[in-house]
Design a protein that fits this description.
Chains A, B, C, D: Keywords: Acetylation, Hydrolase. The structure is a homotetramer. Chain A is an alpha+beta fold. Chain A is built from 14 helices and nine strands. The first copy, chain A, folds into two domains: 163 residues, DD-peptidase/beta-lactamase superfamily (Beta-lactamase), CATH 3.40.710; 129 residues, DD-peptidase/beta-lactamase superfamily (Beta-lactamase), CATH 3.40.710.10. In chain A, 46% of the residues lie in helices and 11% in strands.
């Protein structure tokens, strides 16, 4: 099916609206991004690619990368992961410490900071050189052979990452982190530093729309069951305090990042990435939400 | 497609397992139910019906009815509903008052008690005889012309409903209930008293698998968009503290009740109801969870 | 010792300051009070009385009366009271439901609403006519033979008492209320409706400065140990979110009410009552706090 | 007055009871202490000293030292301290992070871990060599010229201090810590490592019973007002979750530590230290609580 007309039409519609919200400013690298950037890319199981705007400009995917660390760990240790964390919506802010206190250091799910930090701890347990292993994995899944961490962003995160250091130490006080907090947060900050374009991001997430197999190559990234489960987690936990809002308005599993990126997938069909740096109050891309809402209203695509 | 073999096979598999958990005992009417009962019914968009076990025995659908009060109100006032409540997962127990305190009497979603109570308040605002209006609506959607509230159950609920009275009064202290608390909780207790069989329940929920149109008659119950949105809410909020678990293991939108009933839908295809009174620790039917997990593993049905 | 000069001096000092804050407005009876009223009365163990301003004008003592319901129950059942509630500071708002949820319906202390409601439940258990029994008790302790409840205030409270109904029902859901919620809240609203003048209030609280014996008559109201303990509870829990502030700045045990009344005692010496209707953000009398702070700075009176 | 007979009698009474509870075991240095140790020392304003049992054996005073860091900072910057923290009871565990999250990194009071960490940050701001400055101060107040930090205990604390690192980083994420978290927690761990005997501890706290002036020397440690206020804070916040219990049963301001030490003061009269390593469920010395309760019952000493 030719999605280009709907992509174009929706892109124009959102472009014509006020570009509300604020760029994430907690680290300089994110604050200095051009806030008029706006890109879209939809990649289908059949290899079609539909783009609009700044679809080939790199941006910091931030928390979107937590889906990739999750898929790496899930493919390695399977359901043993759930001895270390849960997969329930948190109902609280992404960096909250409150629930950890009453739930003894067991994060609610792998997509909030606490959970992603424990996932990083597991990666540190699994690999001698965890930073390299993670990068190799993301290169493989994304097909970007020369992908690098952004040292600038990783260092910036590290310099102001008190909340994440607090999370790591808090979890370790409950004995749910095995390596040193420095090792674990180091990997975590590098994970969050990954940059991709919309084109690359939609291709990367293709395996979740394809029962675990990479688009084009058909290579197995995760089992069909694991793909289903990652999608279920994205649906219930992928959008911070707006998981319900996104399920309600878009109706597709997906994940967002504070860099203004957003990715969603229609199982059996496509992955779509949107990027626009200004965030709404819940920390999700303002234009990204609008685009995906209008786009799925138009196409009637939904898992529900 | 002939689902009967898989229904039968899964039924036998679960029947052979230990029947764990406990029957809800907070009211005598629920406590005295036969805990060996176990019924299943799957009804398809094409009118096929596949059953197993006690599929034609009536049981108290309890909180499952909250989806019907939601659909009634949504069909009447549309998105105005969201001025009175949110549609986010709560991350806390179904009858918790904690979030209401910090969120000024705005319930997290219409499927927890607090939200369903506000939905009942809206029904009291919309109709002169709200109890009759709600019953008429459920009769219409279910096609059960002689459906009655269970006076026994409603009275029992009323006699021990301190937590729900507390919720109603608490919400009213924030001015988010317009009628008297007695009127509202009265309707609420009657809503929870509705009884159906698995056959009736799966037919009733058919409209959510059919873009808002009733199975067989094709009558519009809600708009396609509203059907999508109700499904999204069921997916993220339908299973108390196990919303993530259900999304992860079953992968279909659905709703459970403390009577041991459970209903799930595959959009564009079918609705399935399971009933077995013993509940797991999270308050969902122990066998219901097992059945739906094994059944969807077998059929590979999932929205993800 | 002649306290009159310091009372006068402090009274003038506070009178000259801006009269900040807001009169409690949640019921009309409190809202319509003259907010320029300002009275003080200090009564000593030796029978001396020092007053300033509107010391003989009646006002609604509101939550200050919770000390009297506590002393009644403590004198009747002693430490058995603590099977039903705790005596720790709450760290949360006076009408919060949050802690009750995690602490299974056991109020933190008898001076927050939840605790006072359970105290009222106990009074309902102890007496055939609890409303009369409580009134008789307050008449005895205060020496005001013709004291009456204020029907106006009690009715007003009842009409808008949703939060207190919520508390009562919530506690009853944990089985920590034995009578009906209506009986208990009825008594509670009458308790809060009592009116006294500063002169009467300071005399009434004299027994807590006198090892449990009424000023003048020497009649035993509570044992010395119970007097000590009530004072300890007032010190740690008597001023809502400002218990620490009051201990820090005034350094005497005491209790405040949203009617703008405030009473404090110096063990072995005197009781002092202040009344001024405008409340600070924490719900304590703005001028009352100022007066007691300056007065004790001047006299160097403190328990610490 | 000769207190020796009552000290002896009470000591024997408590010694004859079961020695319940558990020694703190989170660091080896505390775990290996002899749990039968039991010492008492009461030092009066007039220079009298009454002891019983192991009154001259050194033990880790742990959190009791937080009163000394508080008095140091209060004597240096006065009420400016309260821009950085509050002085209200917390109502939660001593090492809780929950309140910090909703209260934006402002600790509830200087005697819980969070508050003591901010006090340490202020000491780091005030002095070039904060560790030496603090030690010099404690030497001066205690009169122990050769007092040393216990390197063993400080290192042990550091090795397992994840919860405290979490607190420091969390507070820093709210910008309420100015130095590095490592500097601040380092000082904090040394603060907690101080050791004294009961004799030394009761003398050290004498200034709080003496309007801010050191026993014997009469040297001013803090102003009378500051002494009053420190006592008020100890009364409302000095005993973790048992502040109310201690106020109720003992009725004196005081502070406890997980080393099993406990100190209390009667303003204008004496300071008393008790040590017995086994802790009750709230983390206060089991025998310490018993001793002070029985002792004050006997002497009728109380601030209330």
């Amino acid at each position: 099916m030719d999605c280009q007309p709907i992509v174009d039409k929706t892109y124009k519609k959102v472009l014509a609206m006020e570009n509300s919200g604020n760029v994430a400013s907690y680290i300089p690298e994110l604050a200095k991004v051009d806030d008029t950037k706006f890109g879209v890319c939809l990649t289908t199981q059949n290899g079609e690619v539909f783009t609009a705007g700044d679809a080939t400009v790199k941006f910091s995917i931030q928390s979107i990368a937590k889906v990739l660390s999750l898929s790496l760990v899930l493919s390695k240790i399977g359901d043993d992961l759930w001895k270390r964390m849960d997969f329930e919506p948190s109902g609280t802010a992404f960096n909250s410490l409150v629930q950890l206190e009453s739930e003894n250091g067991i994060p609610r799910n792998p997509l909030i900071n606490a959970g992603a930090i424990v996932v990083c701890d597991i990666i540190c347990e699994l690999f001698d050189n965890p930073k390299k292993a993670l990068l190799d994995y993301v290169r493989e899944v994304s097909g970007i052979e020369d992908l690098q961490y952004s040292e600038n962003i990783a260092h910036s995160e590290q310099q102001t990452g008190y909340r994440n250091f607090a999370l790591a130490n808090f979890i370790k006080s409950f004995n749910n982190i095995k390596n040193t907090c420095d090792q674990v947060t180091d990997l975590y900050f590098y994970l969050c530093s990954i940059e991709m374009t919309c084109e690359q991001l939609s291709y990367t997430f293709g395996f979740l729309a394809n029962r675990g197999k990479q688009f084009n190559t058909g290579k197995t990234i995760v089992t069909p069951n694991q793909a289903k489960r990652i999608n279920a987690i994205m649906q219930t936990c992928g959008f911070y305090d707006e998981a319900g809002e996104f399920a309600y308005k878009v109706g597709l599993p997906g994940k967002s990042g504070v860099g203004g990126g957003m990715v969603a997938i229609l199982p059996g069909s496509y992955a779509i990435a949107v990027w626009s740096p200004k965030l709404n109050k819940q920390g999700n891309s303002y234009r990204g939400m609008k685009f995906l809402q209008y786009f799925t209203d138009e196409t009637q695509d939904t898992v529900f």
